Amino acid sequence: MWALWKEALKNKRFVILLIISFIGLIAFALVLPYFFIEILLPKPGVTLTDPILNFFAPRDWSIEIFVLIYLCAVISLVFNFTTPKIILVGLQTYVVVNFMRITSLYLFTLEAPAGTIPLSDPFLAVFAYGQPIYVKDLFFSGHISTLCVFLFIENRRVLKYFILLSTIAVAVLLAWQRVHYTLDMVAAPLITWLVYRFFNWVNSRLI
User: Fold this and answer.
1) CB distance 84 to 162 below 8 Å
2) Is 90 exposed, middle or buried (0-12, 13-18, 19+ CB in 10 A)?
3) Helix 142-153 and helix 182-206, axial crossing angle in degrees, nearest 10
4) Average pLDDT of adjacent 10-residue blocks, the chain of 207 residues
5) Domain boundary assignment for the chain
6) Among 46, 90, 93, 195, which one has the highest count of C-beta atoms within 10 angstroms of its own C-beta?
7) pTM for the complete prediction?
8) What is the rounded distance in angstroms from the CA atom of residue 53 to the CA atom of residue 134?
9) What value does the CA radius of gyration of the chain take, rounded to a whole number of Å?
10) 3-state secondary structure string across 10-66
């Protein structure tokens, strides 16, 4: 398992890209709580009309949503950890997509759909200074984009189908809970895929 990592770490460009990605991840983690609490929550947003949400009577699916997300995360890390280049492109994609989310959340601020039931994530409750209710975390969906990172880096057919089905299930449950507009979840895979393809192209030429 460690042989591929030892070989990859001999490549200076790989190491530099990995370090930059980790710095970006740390910066994102530090900026996120302040951005949500101090900047995004007080900022007025626009309410969208989304007829698709009317098909569901709001219900709290927080546990099911986070079980699927964390399960996919564990599966992805366990099965891909032995492949450094996959871990790198996944990390690069995740970091850049989330900085793009911060930008889009600010530029295209939306108000939560009517009847929304805020997600409750025990990890986020600790991580985000005890304030886990981010009802304006909308365009575009971080939950779907995160699952799409796992989906795009996965090469095993069975696991890819499992993550795909989990992503679809999470999207339906998010709509059911009225955590997101349909637009938020439709945009997330496209943006994530473009970022993933970009870093695949960059890495193939640098390392």
Assistant:
1) no
2) buried
3) 40
4) 87 97 96 90 93 91 94 96 96 98 96 91 58 77 97 97 98 96 97 98 93
5) 2-47+55-206
6) 93
7) 0.92
8) 19
9) 18
10) CCHHHHHHHHHHHHHHHHHHHHHHHHHHHHHCCCCCECCCCHHHHHCCCCCCHHHHH
User: What is the number of other CB atoms lying within 10 angstroms of the CB of residue 176?
Assistant: 19
Q: What is the pLDDT of residue 133?
A: 61
By C-alpha distance, which of 95, 91, 99, 109 is closest to 45? 109
The size of the chain, in residues, is 207
What is the pLDDT, as a whole number, of residue 56? 84
HEC assignment per residue over the chain: CHHHHHHHCCCHHHHHHHHHHHHHHHHHHHHHHHHHHHHHCCCCCECCCCHHHHHCCCCCCHHHHHHHHHHHHHHHHHHHCCCHHHHHHHHHHHHHHHHHHHHHHHHCCECCCCCCCCCCCHHHHHHCCCCCCCCCCCCCCHHHHHHHHHHHHCCCHHHHHHHHHHHHHHHHHHHHCCCCCHHHHHHHHHHHHHHHHHHHHHHHHHC
Q: What is the pLDDT of residue 55?
A: 87
| Short-list 112, 109, 121, CA closest to 64 | 121
